[in-house]
Each structure stands twice: as C-alpha cells, then as structure tokens.
Amino acid sequence: MLVYELGDIVTLKKGHPCGENKWEILRTGVDIKLKCLGCERQVWLSRMEFEKRVRKIKEGDKFVSIVHHKKSED
Fold first, then answer.
1. What Pfam family is a match, any one (predicted)?
2. Residue 74: inside a domain, yes or no?
3. From CA 50, how far away is CA 34, in angstroms rounded?
C-alpha cells in the first residue's frame, strides 16, 4: 500500500464530468477526500475504491505511474 500525503496531486482512471482529471488529496485515512482541480468539487472515496481508481501521482513537474512511484523515506 502506498502512502499518500495531503496536497498530493493524482489522476484517476476516469475524469470528472467537468473535463478535468487532476485531483488534490485533502484528507487521508480510512476514506480519502479529493478536490477536483477543475471545478473545486470535493468528493469522498473509500481507501479501497481510491486504490482501484488512482493511476498517476505528480512528482515535481510530471506525473508518474503509481507502479513506478517511490516515496522518499524521511
């Protein structure tokens, strides 16, 4: 299981109806709270549903596939 932090930008399998596919993580835990970066709408997903839907995470200036994502160990 990957560790997601507040403020991470992710893309999901399907885009939002507003046309945007970038989401900011606002809250983590058993449920994940996301904010659409297009229309500012906020949604809740269970962690299991989020893990199924997430595809890429932003590292620096580019998006990296979750499969290749390596969290820095602090």
1. DUF951
2. no
3. 10
